[in-house]
Amino acid sequence: MGALTTLSSPKLIKPTILNQFPPNKIPSLQFNPPPSTKPTNLFSSSALKSSNDAVPPLVVVGSANADIYVEIDRLPKVGETISAKSGQALAGGKGANQAVCGAKLEYPTYFLGQVGKDANGKLITEALEGGGVFLDHLSTVSDAPTGHAVVMLQGDGQNSIIIVGGANMECWPESLGEEDLEVVRNAGIVLLQREIPDKVNVQVAKAARSAHVPVILDAGGVDSPIPPELLNVIDILSPNETELARLTNMPTESFEQISQAVGKCLKMGVKQVLVKLGHRGSVLFTQGEEPIRQSIISAPAVVDTTGAGDTFTAAFAVALVEGKSKKECLRFAAAAASLCVQVKGAIPGMPDRESVLDLLQAV
Description:
It is a single chain. With about 375 residues, this protein is α/β, with parallel strands linked by helices. The chain is built from eleven helices and 13 strands. It has a nine-stranded mixed sheet with strand order 5-4-1-8-9-10-11-12-13, sandwiched between helices. Strands 3-2-6-7 form a four-stranded mixed sheet. Strand 9, helix 6 and strand 10 form a beta-alpha-beta unit. About 45% of the residues are buried. Keywords: ATP-binding, Carbohydrate metabolism, Cytoplasm, Kinase, Magnesium, Metal-binding, Nucleotide-binding, Nucleus, Potassium, Transferase.
């Protein structure tokens, strides 16, 4: 249904970052543009006039983890040891997840992050490459291990996760290099999360703001307040209901409570809040406008919810930078998340573009 299901994909061309978009001509995305400045719809063939045209990329700055999966019937009690049905290591991390999702949705995507010189770093690098992500800005550090996470996956697909930061939190330079900041300034949209140091996110968001590049901050990650310096330079804050409750110290059980908690975020300086509500769907709040609600697109079976939120956020960002309406962005993201939960593993579960469009056409 709708334009998302019928229009062609943008051509996946590796952008010539330093030459294609000089600093004074960087494409910017207006969130509420007048008709004369509405962003180009990159789904349409008219947006791709020649094979030499390059699309301003999605740039994901964030974490990369080796996810150690253990399948269990239930969580252990204090002092109790239980046996897992199985265990395996898969590539993950919120940043890597979102980058692979963007690339599998056929949007040119760069990942800026760090891994260690170890087997887990190789696992993640291969997964990113296999997903079609450009790795020009992925660093390998020798003084910290690759980040990893223990994912305790229960029979109903729900999970509990413990993260060890490793290279995601350590060994970052005091100031990011000019080449890294340049790819940010030339992006079509930037995705951040909170599994890397806040000081890195602040540098990236400020660089993006200076070039009028929109920034989405996924609130998932460290359990600490978001610095006002960061909140003031992002365009969309995207928490789930648990993260929203933690950030605001307010309940988020009902829609009214969620709205009140979002109101507190808006008072902090955020202009838009995209709340992911799991089986209850999602809501986009924009200051001065009515909230836009999106229900889930039901999956025949929920195998693993790991990475579903990352899939949703990345798919929303792809649709947004391609010029779709906010309502269409939410629907596109809901379809992508529905497909993700049907496969075990975050990166293995990321859907391709054709699958998302087919699902949208079927519902």
